[in-house]
Amino acid sequence: MRSLFVTGTDTGAGKTLASATLLHAARARGLRAIGMKPVASGCESMPGGWRNADALALQSASEPRPVYEDLNPFALPEPLAPELASRAAGIEVTAEPILAAFARLSTHADMVVVEGVGGWAAPLSATLDQRDLVRAMRLPVVLVVGLRLGCLNHARLTADAIRADGCELAGWIACGVDPLMACREENLALLDARLPAPRLGYLPPMADPQPVELAHRILLP
C-alpha cells in the first residue's frame, strides 16, 4: 500500500471528506492510516495552539492518532490563500518541516493520506508549489472532483496539469457538493469516459456526511 496526495478541482470540492473517507477505507482493511494537512489556513486559537477544522477531521479519522504538529506543520490563522496567510502570520511555508513531519508519520503508518490546499495549482509560498511536495514525497495523486456546473472543465484541466507536472494520477473521487446539480449521472459518465484514471468512488450529497459510513464506497488505488 502506498501513501496518497489528495487534491481537488477547486476549494470546496470535498477534499477533506474524501481524505477522511480514504482513511476509514484503509483502516477497514486493517491498515494503519494517518492523515496529514501540511498547510492549513483559517485556523482557530485553542488551548493547544492554532487548530484547523479540516486537519482535526483528519486527525479524528486516523489510527494511530498523530500529534497535531506533525499532522499540520503550518497552521495559519487567516482564512486566505496560504501565501497570503503565511505573510500575514510573518512566516514562510517551506518544504523541509513538511517533509520531516511526513517522514515521522510514515514510520507509524501503512498509509499516509496527505490533503492539499485548494486546487492543484494553488501556491504554498513564493517558492513552493504543491507539485514540489508531491515530487519530493513521491506520492501518487487522487483528484477529488466536486460535482457542480463546470466540473468537467475543471477536472480535465486538473488531470492534465497533474500529469504535465510529472506526477501520477492514481484515480479520482466524485463528491456531490451541489445537491441540486442537474444531470449528475450523465456528468459522471462523461468524467468516466474522459479522465485518464479510474474512478475510486462517489460520495453523494448528504446533509451530514460521516466518513466512516462512506468508507465502503471507496476503492483504494
UniProtKB/TrEMBL annotation:
Q: Does the keyword ATP-binding apply?
A: yes
Instruction: Show the active-site residues.
Output: 37
| Cofactor(s) required for function per UniProt | Mg(2+)
Give the pathway annotation. Cofactor biosynthesis; biotin biosynthesis; biotin from 7,8-diaminononanoate: step 1/2
Residues annotated to bind Mg(2+): 16, 54, 115
Reaction(s) catalyzed by this protein?
Answer: (7R,8S)-7,8-diammoniononanoate + CO2 + ATP = (4R,5S)-dethiobiotin + ADP + phosphate + 3 H(+)
Positions with a binding annotation for ATP: 12-17, 54, 115-118
Q: Which Pfam families match?
A: AAA_26
Task: Provide the E.C. number(s) assigned to this enzyme.
Answer: 6.3.3.3
InterPro entries (alphabetical):
DTB_synth_BioD, P-loop_NTPase
Q: Which UniProt keywords apply?
A: ATP-binding, Biotin biosynthesis, Cytoplasm, Ligase, Magnesium, Metal-binding, Nucleotide-binding
Identify the enzyme class.
Answer: ligase
| Gene3D superfamilies, A to Z | P-loop containing nucleotide triphosphate hydrolases
- Identify the residues that bind substrate: 41
Q: Tell me the compartments it is located in.
A: Cytoplasm
Main subcellular localization, coarse class?
A: cytoplasm
Q: Give the record's subunit note.
A: Homodimer.
Q: PANTHER family recorded for this chain?
A: DETHIOBIOTIN SYNTHETASE
- Family classification: Belongs to the dethiobiotin synthetase family.
Job of this protein: Catalyzes a mechanistically unusual reaction, the ATP-dependent insertion of CO2 between the N7 and N8 nitrogen atoms of 7,8-diaminopelargonic acid (DAPA, also called 7,8-diammoniononanoate) to form a ureido ring.
Instruction: Extract the NCBIfam families matched here.
Output: bioD
Name of the featured protein: ATP-dependent dethiobiotin synthetase BioD
The record lists the organism as Pseudoxanthomonas daejeonensis
The lineage, from the top, is: Bacteria, Pseudomonadati, Pseudomonadota, Gammaproteobacteria, Lysobacterales
